[in-house]
């Protein structure tokens, strides 16, 4: 199998970088903002008062009305969450927020993905009913739980659905549905994730309670939950449009000041990050995987308990357990990735002959890790990928990851419409989805999925394009600019971290830590030797040392080692030119 080199292009400017409001900034930073449509730093939207009003989110008034009844009648509330980081933070924010507002009885339940699957299923309702709740609130799930909500209703349990996933043709008959992506919702920040949605519900509930004199004029400060809101928002890789940037920025400021949950501070410690220098990418690449590992391999309850824990020492013990689970997850993932690459190699196909929509299956693959596997393979072959693992008797479960231009959930919907009965169930959003099919239908589904991708994409769409912020002059390689870029975000999906490209002389290369490529490079035509590192690259660029020049796509970063800080290039792509 061969994979074509990507096309590397400079990100086009959306506004004039010479705009007067950008004139006081470093020219590189001004260009970066201009390429992201920002002609005034005020547009970054970092202040809480700039958040969109909750009144625009459909379902909030109905949810608040039902919650007021629960408060007045001292009813028991059960949160039903999801088993990823957004689900864990959503569950924690719901439990903590309701406790702050004065709920006497609030507990949570997260379905074990291997026993019950995703969402408020009828089976998980039966489990929930054992604790005799008066009200169930779903977080980060529920919009597709038609049968589960109906079962709860039959048992006399009211349900409030809070979710952000795309709605199907039918909505559950809940007493309230809060979801910015449901039909008829005018809330413009459609990218708000599960933890953001429940946070908005809590804000509206606090205001309603305060108007009724519930707090004697001293309402609790729900901003104390923003560290978890920031973590869940970054972890779910939702677009960091202006509203989400405000949530993430405010959460980061609280973390840096040490005003975060003990469990989150403990996770930062075990991940080797510095709390006072935390950035959004640390949440996404260091903290979230440790929480996700619990849901992938065991039960997300340990992750939620870590976030709920008030005692730092106990939280640290749980964080270390999560860290160990993450190490185990990485080992499983690496083995599965190697098997997947071998499977592709056995096909003796080049990238022109690969299916447009690629399906992979192995009877020994782990259900909890196929999502990461699909993502890794997608990055290599740049096409929609679905990785399958064994499910219940006679079934296999798939996790799908897509590329720009192909909405994976809608694509699965189209396959289901053209081939009734082929998909047992599915759900998701533009870039990620989950599905279940009969094991015997894998070949038929693979063909149908490939045909649907071919209907929407052409061969040119499968050529990866990397958008960069251009080349840097040698004078720009400085700690000052690297620090400025760290603090200029928060960066994330659809508000990407600055990425640069350039040609360099390759002075040194070696493998460190068995899996990372350490380089020393010099800008072409320059005199400055720079350290660079490419993670998860376990071979030398060219072992025969015949190549003396390389082309890099990289980010500027500050490396901290044994108290010393130095400039370092974080390499995203490396090739010759």
TrEMBL record:
<dbReference type="InterPro" id="IPR038763">
    <property type="entry name" value="DHH_sf"/>
</dbReference>
<protein>
    <recommendedName>
        <fullName>Single-stranded-DNA-specific exonuclease RecJ</fullName>
    </recommendedName>
</protein>
<dbReference type="InterPro" id="IPR041122">
    <property type="entry name" value="RecJ_OB"/>
</dbReference>
<dbReference type="Pfam" id="PF17768">
    <property type="entry name" value="RecJ_OB"/>
</dbReference>
<dbReference type="GO" id="GO:0004527">
    <property type="term" value="F:exonuclease activity"/>
</dbReference>
<keyword id="KW-0175">Coiled coil</keyword>
<feature type="domain" description="DHHA1">
    <location>
        <begin position="360"/>
        <end position="453"/>
    </location>
</feature>
<dbReference type="Pfam" id="PF01368">
    <property type="entry name" value="DHH"/>
</dbReference>
<feature type="domain" description="DDH">
    <location>
        <begin position="76"/>
        <end position="233"/>
    </location>
</feature>
<dbReference type="Pfam" id="PF02272">
    <property type="entry name" value="DHHA1"/>
</dbReference>
<dbReference type="InterPro" id="IPR004610">
    <property type="entry name" value="RecJ"/>
</dbReference>
<comment type="similarity">
    <text>Belongs to the RecJ family.</text>
</comment>
<keyword id="KW-0269">Exonuclease</keyword>
<keyword id="KW-0540">Nuclease</keyword>
<keyword id="KW-0378">Hydrolase</keyword>
<dbReference type="InterPro" id="IPR051673">
    <property type="entry name" value="SSDNA_exonuclease_RecJ"/>
</dbReference>
<feature type="coiled-coil region">
    <location>
        <begin position="308"/>
        <end position="342"/>
    </location>
</feature>
<dbReference type="InterPro" id="IPR001667">
    <property type="entry name" value="DDH_dom"/>
</dbReference>
<dbReference type="InterPro" id="IPR003156">
    <property type="entry name" value="DHHA1_dom"/>
</dbReference>
<feature type="domain" description="RecJ OB">
    <location>
        <begin position="468"/>
        <end position="571"/>
    </location>
</feature>
């Amino acid at each position: 199998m061969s994979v074509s080199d990507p096309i590397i292009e400079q990100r086009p400017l959306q506004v004039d970088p010479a705009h007067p409001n950008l004139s006081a900034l470093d020219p590189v930073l001004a260009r970066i903002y201009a390429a992201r449509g920002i002609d005034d730093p005020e547009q970054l939207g970092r202040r809480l008062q700039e958040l969109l009003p909750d009144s625009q989110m459909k379902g909030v008034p109905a949810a608040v009305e039902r919650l007021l009844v629960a408060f007045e009648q001292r009813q028991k509330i059960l949160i039903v969450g999801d088993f990823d980081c957004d689900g864990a933070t959503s569950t924690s924010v719901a439990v903590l927020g309701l406790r702050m507002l004065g709920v006497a009885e609030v507990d949570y339940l997260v379905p074990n993905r291997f026993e019950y699957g995703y969402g408020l299923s009828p089976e998980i309702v039966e489990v929930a009913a054992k604790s005799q709740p008066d009200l169930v609130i779903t977080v980060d799930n529920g919009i597709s739980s038609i049968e589960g909500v109906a079962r709860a209703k039959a048992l006399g349990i009211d349900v409030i659905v809070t979710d952000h996933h795309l709605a199907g043709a039918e909505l559950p008959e809940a007493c309230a549905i809060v979801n910015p992506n449901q039909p008829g919702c005018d809330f413009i920040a459609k990218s708000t994730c599960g933890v953001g949605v429940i946070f908005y519900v809590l804000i509206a509930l606090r205001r309603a309670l305060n108007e009724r004199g519930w707090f004697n004029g001293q309402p609790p400060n729900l901003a104390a939950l923003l560290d978890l809101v920031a973590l869940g928002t970054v972890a779910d890789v939702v677009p960091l449009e202006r509203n989400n940037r405000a949530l993430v920025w405010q959460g980061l400021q609280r973390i840096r000041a040490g005003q975060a949950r003990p469990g989150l501070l403990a996770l930062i410690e075990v991940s080797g990050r510095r709390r006072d220098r935390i950035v959004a990418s640390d949440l996404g690449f260091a903290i979230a995987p440790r929480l996700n590992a619990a849901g992938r391999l065991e039960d997300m309850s340990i992750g939620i308990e870590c976030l709920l824990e008030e005692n730092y020492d106990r939280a640290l013990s749980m964080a270390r357990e999560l860290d160990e689970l993450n190490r185990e997850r990485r080992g499983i993932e690496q083995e599965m990735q190697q098997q997947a690459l071998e499977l592709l190699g056995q096909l003796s196909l080049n990238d022109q002959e690969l299916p447009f929509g690629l399906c992979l299956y192995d009877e020994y693959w782990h259900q909890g890790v196929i999502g990461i596997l699909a993502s890794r393979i997608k990055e290599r072959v740049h096409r929609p990928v679905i990785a399958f693992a064994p499910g219940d008797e006679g079934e296999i479960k798939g996790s799908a990851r897509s590329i720009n231009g192909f909405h994976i959930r809608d694509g699965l919907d189209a396959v289901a419409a053209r081939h009734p009965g082929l998909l047992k169930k599915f759900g998701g959003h533009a870039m990620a989805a989950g599905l279940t099919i009969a094991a015997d239908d894998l070949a038929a589904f693979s063909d149908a999925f490939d045909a649907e991708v071919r209907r929407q994409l052409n061969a040119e769409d499968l050529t990866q394009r990397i958008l960069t912020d251009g080349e840097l002059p040698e004078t720009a390689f400085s700690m000052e600019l690297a620090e400025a870029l760290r603090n200029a975000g928060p960066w994330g999906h659809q508000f990407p971290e600055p990425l640069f490209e350039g040609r360099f002389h390759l002075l040194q290369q070696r493998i460190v830590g068995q899996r990372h490529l350490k380089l020393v490079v010099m800008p072409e035509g320059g005199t400055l030797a720079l350290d660079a590192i490419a993670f998860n690259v376990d071979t030398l660029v060219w072992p025969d040392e015949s190549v003396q020049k390389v082309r890099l796509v990289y980010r500027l970063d500050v490396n901290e080692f044994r108290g010393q800080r130095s400039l370092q290039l974080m390499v995203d792509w490396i090739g010759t030119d």
